[in-house]
Specification:
binds 3-methyl-2-oxobutanoic acid
């Protein structure tokens, strides 16, 4: 029987060069499916705002939204390590604000770790949380909570100066105590350099095959997204299948074929 995944499992997997599988999920049923499919880590991403709550970006997602969805995920699975995103505005003010909201998430949901976006400017907060026993996952590269600053969701690390900043940030985030680092939408060669430079696992999304783990958004993987990013792959088309099933049922109701008696 598979054991509960812990930080130690993730570090050991990196040493053994065993790729780990992360997937986003936002409710108990999805968490159960992911666990049964062998997913190692479930990330309750603030992408929930875009894929489930109908927002244009992740900015409107609240702490209460994250707590609701993360608690459901934790109830739905046993062995995956569960990571909850700190939503926009819940951690940028001060390390103390980040601690208070992280504690609230961990106590109310049973999640194993929190994730926050940002490089050097987040080091003090990562260090503050890590020193107090929290498992912190960093996130650099394309950081969707900064969409208004960048004005787009394009690949980061396109200039050599930006690539050096990202490498420096990655090393500093590890030194500050993070236990894993998400690399979103950066050149594969840069992700490979960062992965080589770090002892903690890197988790790639649009960052090439050299990362220690890969993560995808549930809706992209299953063909439920309206716009799938170029680096993702839909392994099935649940959106079309669900639409066809609903249309068939509706037709049966209208033609008196359902229920059958
Ligand atoms: O919110 C999210 O789903 C994420 C992943 C894209 C890494 O942060």
């Amino acid at each position: 029987m598979k054991k509960k995944i812990t930080t130690a499992t993730l570090l050991a997997a990196k040493k053994q060069q065993k790729p780990m599988v992360w997937l986003t999920a936002y409710d108990a049923g999805a968490a159960r499916i992911a666990e049964n499919a062998g997913v190692d880590v479930i990330l309750v991403g603030d992408s929930v705002g875009m894929v489930n709550l109908g927002y244009d970006n992740t900015i409107p997602v609240t702490l209460d939204d994250m707590i609701l969805h993360t608690a459901a995920v934790v109830r739905g699975c046993n062995t995956p390590w569960v990571v909850c995103d700190l939503p926009f505005g819940s951690y940028q003010q001060s390390p103390e604000q980040a601690l208070q909201n992280s504690v609230s998430i961990l106590q109310k949901t049973g999640a194993d770790a929190i994730k926050l976006e940002g490089g050097k400017h987040m080091l003090e907060t990562i260090s503050f949380l890590s020193a107090r026993g929290l498992a912190v996952v960093g996130h650099i590269g394309l950081t969707p909570q900064s969409v208004h600053q960048f004005g787009n969701y394009k690949q980061r690390g396109q200039s050599s100066c930006e690539r050096q900043t990202l490498l420096d940030d990655a090393v500093a985030i590890q030194q500050a105590g993070a236990v894993a680092l998400v690399l979103e939408c950066i050149p594969a060669a840069l992700a490979a350099t960062i992965t080589e430079a770090l002892d903690i696992p890197t988790v790639g999304i649009g960052a090439g095959k050299s990362c220690d783990a890969q993560v995808l958004v549930w809706h992209d993987l299953l063909g439920l997204s309206e716009n799938i990013p170029p680096f993702a792959k839909a392994y099935t088309n649940l959106g079309e299948q669900a639409g066809a099933a609903i249309a068939q049922w509706a037709q049966d109701v209208r033609e008196g074929k359902f229920p059958t008696s």
